[in-house]
Amino acid sequence: MEGTMTERIQVNGLPAEASFTAGGDLRWRVDGGAGRGEQSLAVESSVLGFTAEGREITVRAFVSQLKGPFCGVGNLGNRVMKNFVLEMPTEVVAKMWSERLRKYIDSLGRPKRIFIFLNPYGGKKSARKIFHTEIRPLLLAANIIYTLQETEYQLHAQELAYKLDFLNYDGIVCVSGDGVLVEVVNGLLQREDWDTAIKVPLGIIPAGTGNGLAKSILDAAGENYSIQNATFAVIRGHKRALDVTTVLQGNTKFFSILMLSWGLIADIDIESEKYRWMGDTRLDFYCILRVMKLRKYHGNIEYIPAPGHESFGKPKNEREAIAGNIEISKQGRDGDVDVLHGYQGPNCCFDDSVWRFLEGPFISIMLVNVPWVGKDAMPAPEAKFSDGFLDLVLIKDCPKSALASILLKTGNGSHVKSPYVMYLKVKAFRLVPGNRVGDSAKGGIVDVDGEVVARGEGVYMCGQERDPMSYGPPILLTVDKGLATVFSSR
Ligand SMILES: Nc1ncnc2c1ncn2[C@@H]1O[C@H](COP(=O)(O)OP(=O)(O)OP(=O)(O)O)[C@@H](O)[C@H]1O
Fold first, then answer.
1. What positions does the domain DAGKc occupy (predicted)?
2. Global pTM?
3. Residue ending a domain, choose from 86, 107, 128
4. Reduced 3-state DSSP string for 468-488
């Protein structure tokens, strides 16, 4: 192992004693003048990249704006790009230092070439501008080579991910909302070579309305939610496994990474579209409206609780549940040539599992994979990226005043303490959605990762959505532990 290198150099024109440690810390002490003092940069967590020319090495750092002796340490406020020019005594010394820096950065396993999907249409339609002003400068500073592909229509990212030559890239990054990343996951899992394709690290840089995955990734690393921090998470190249849920109904199948919702939350998410002109306040406005004119839905659920979560619901006749489940799986596997290539869902064996059940009416049901489903909503504070379970958040009945408080508390996850909220982890889940209580002619919406996958009779239609599942027949959710990989800050 190589030891610490020490040298008398100039840093940004000031004479200094500098060292680069085997652990990747760049430290220097300026002896006199205005810049006097000691500074330290942990290359792994604070440096994007560097360039070397002659006797000069320019280190491109990404550091806290706050002043302090250890500028690269900690998470103090927003970060900015800052150059440190290290002037070495000779070119030979400069070469030695830059080789050591290069070797250290190479050892970090950071991505060198990435494929980027950019949705110019998502959120406030500003992804293109965000890319050029905030993301691209960081990628260039990190010497990352990228191929940029704008998505031109719905499901374009899915089509391209299906045929992308992923071996040319160290990662696939979406500058979008969660929807485009979900399409990429679905495209990769439909491929013949899905098992290698889904191992390509996926990155998300938030530029849409729904950005739950980016928020979850940054929050888990103790980082502030920002476009630049999300970009730096990709650059740093740490990886996390992410559970993938298979959503199956008959021959129809989807892969989900965020959430399935039915009832109140799905209604707010989808029906508030008609108030899009209000901007972000549409969700709050429609939320109040839906609480005031509260709906409940008939239906029933069955699930296999995670160990330690068996106290909720009622025990289901084991044989009956398994038989129902096998029937669904067979339809998906044998019924349609189209679904036979690509990933078929996890190899589940529920032989030793005890199913439990609960009958409606229900106000709201959510099955969540990561803690945050938007940058301000944390319905599942205990959700883990790759525990192999979904967090079930359920409200069966609740006075309106308590419901309003529950919805407000979703911002920090404390709603799960409410006696009206049932919160547990499940391994598999089966939903039979029914119609509205008191209005049997109207059904509800099944929302998977922000897309309507099924809707009942008399439900609001918006735009050109696809509803490939029918409303009513059982929808089965199974989880594949850590099937996908995402870039993360730590
Ligand atoms: N050029 C395009 N025109 C129209 N739709 C597109 C285009 N590119 C992608 N889409 C679709 O836009 C939808 C939303 O994408 P994205 O995930 O980026 O944003 P979002 O935050 O989830 O949603 P939104 O901001 O639209 O509410 C996806 O269904 C995607 O297929």
1. 109-251
2. 0.93
3. 107
4. CCCCCCCEEEEEEEEEEEEEE
